[in-house]
Amino acid sequence: MTYASNNTPEGYITSSGTRSIAAGAITGLAITGDAHLTVLSPEALTPVESLNAPPRLTNIPPRNRLFVGREREIEQLNLEVNSQYAPRITVIHGLGGIGKSTLVANWAVDVTHKPAWWIAADSQTSIRAGLAEFACALQPSIANSLPQQALTERAISWLSSHENWLLVLDNVTDPSDINLITSRVKHGLIVVTSRRTTGWHHVDSDIALEALSTSEAKDLFAAIVNPKSKQSDVAITKLCAELGELPLAVEQAGAFCAESGISADEYLELLATHPAATYRNGPEGTHADRTVARVWNITLDRLADDPVSTLLLHVLCWYAPNSIPRSLVDKVSDAPALTKARGRLAAHSMISIDPESQSINLHRLVQAVGRTPDPMDQYRSKNLIASARSIALRHLKLALSGDLLEPGNWPSWRAIIPHVSHLADYSSPSEDCEVLCSVLSSAGMFLVNQGQFGEARRLLERSITGFSRLFGSVDVRTLQARITLGAALISLDGPAKTLPYVNRVLKDAEKYLGNDHEATLSSRNNVAYAYMWTGQPKRAIPLLKETIASRERTGDEGLEILVCRLNLARAYRDLKDFDTSLTITTSILDEAITTIGEDHPFIISIESALGGIYHETREHRKALDIQKKCLRDSEKLLGKSHPETLAAQNNLAASYSMIGNERRGLKLTEKTLKDRERVLGYLHPDTILTRNNFAAALLQTGNRTVAKHLFIQNLAECKDVLGPNHPLTRATETVLSLLR
């Protein structure tokens, strides 16, 4: 309360009370208390509709001299600029470090839209602050006249009432944060960069940014390092591939090499020996959050409230980067939590999900970092990474638990094998556990069944080393892997060189497992098969009969006994006992149709053997019809590159030659030779057989000189791979003696 008093000397007015005012007269505004008085300049009252932006107003970052590639994305952005529709909102989304901001900055420099304004938009607070700065740039005189809220509103109002401007919202983390702009603007062009891949249904277009091509990544690396350093092109290519062509990683590697004076080879060595430190260390002046080791932590921070997301990501890091089946992660957590985690990782560009197969993909460098423990990183503790690896292993073992001889299981097994190989490649052999060795053994057995002997050998040898270290060389698990390896080596190294190995394994199996153990029976069949391939069917027949008898004693009526009986029929055919061979083969065919069904791939093997017998008995037309059917069925069930399909193709080519259609036989034999060299290898026994057939077909069609040269070349290969006593070796020697 304020009281005025007249009891004062003449000419004076007094007042009393808190914050009272004494005045003879007040003609303006008098304020007491804590109020803030803002005096607006006349410019602040200018309507935004009539406010013109300063000429060439822009804060777009300068062009990056290291920018490479992205022609397709720039063309798409240019189409947005020239669109007749307004407003246009385009989102560039992708993994952190993929180059979203760099792309937009380099494109925006050349855009004629003005003003062109760049806002760091990682939160709504940042967006409002950026808009306020834009309002001040439009009218510098109002910078100190209005609060931020009013400046933000003024900026949005200006954008809503003007055309031909560009607004870049960089690094948006939540699509809803930009609604305060997009819900009101009528014209102009908005370009958004974000790690988020979802939530953009309200925008006009989106561009998913991928890694650079190999050539672009190499150009980027070369632009950074000193050209006088004489970097190896092969090493640069390998380094860029190791970094997954991720721009941030390539730039970090190039800058580090340039600063420290090391080569791409030396940087690769650092990655191999000290991965955590190499991912963490950039060149001098690099902010820690902009290194490969930390760039994705921003995203993981946003997912920190969901531990399943972090665990799922680390499990995925142990698989191959592409086409990861959902079955390999479906036990990470319960279905609702897993679905949520998968969706959140995809929404933040850490993974992508194929819309058709629902398989998962992620960048290989995300995997490399995620597999590398770093005590300085809360998301990469040694325990978390080890736990994720164990979970991945359990999923792989479960995925390979089905019957590998059942064709219905083959598609899923084929999808799993690359992930087995990848986990093994990035695990230390000295630390292989029983589960991993078991997975490698199962995968190797499947690959032998599929005719992929090279990769089978690699996985099986790793499995044998691990099992031997854990349980000894004659443990049943080790012996089973050794037996399977023997089957692969017959095809890879040739039966002549492999015979000592498979005989040694058979002796160990009989001694430590017994004569009737399943592994022993498989081993005995391997030895018999090797004898057959080296032209010794008489030595194979007793082994096969003994194996069949053992299986009959145990009541085995499955595929294994049918395979042994078919091998026995082939052995009799090699002895020229065609009647016995034909009787056994037709009996097997009838039994197999009843036992495993007429659509089973093994039926093709039986029918093909039947066709071979008809060739030997000179019933060529009957053989031709069978081989045509075998090739059709094999292509349908197994695919055009499967070894069984190539065998059917080889047999059909021989059938054409036998009936007098030499030209057609020559053409198909040449194709089969190329296919077998590509699929099986140059020195595979089947390839050598087809090469001999090709030489014979050339001779049959009058090309004596080329045929002789090919026979000479093939004779050396027959001796080396099949042995000097193999029928094909002797037959080749006979042909050459006649050609001399």
The share of residues in helices is 55-70%
Give the strand line-up of the largest sheet: 4-5-6-3-7
Task: Assign the CATH class of the domain at 50-208.
Answer: Alpha Beta
Q: Outline the biggest β-sheet.
A: 5 strands, parallel
Total DSSP E strands: 9
What is the first-to-last residue Cα distance?
133 Å
Summed up, the helix count is: 31
Q: Per DSSP, what share of the residues sits in E-state strands of 2 or more residues?
A: 5-15%
Name the structural class. Answer: mainly alpha
Short description:
This protein is mainly alpha-helical and 740 residues long. Helices cover 58% and strands 5% of the residues. The strands form three sheets. It has a five-stranded parallel β-sheet with strand order 4-5-6-3-7, sandwiched between helices.
Write the layout of secondary structure elements.
Layout: E1 3-5, E2 14-16, H1 71-81, E3 88-93, H2 100-108, E4 116-120, H3 124-138, H4 148-161, E5 166-172, H5 179-182, E6 189-194, E7 205-208, H6 214-224, H7 233-242, H8 247-260, H9 264-273, H10 275-280, H11 297-302, H12 307-316, H13 335-347, E8 352-353, E9 360-361, H14 364-370, H15 382-399, H16 410-425, H17 434-449, H18 453-471, H19 476-492, H20 495-513, H21 518-533, H22 537-553, H23 559-574, H24 578-595, H25 601-616, H26 620-637, H27 643-658, H28 662-679, H29 685-700, H30 704-722, H31 727-739
Parallel strand pairs: 3-6, 3-7, 4-5, 5-6
Antiparallel strand pairs: 1-2, 8-9
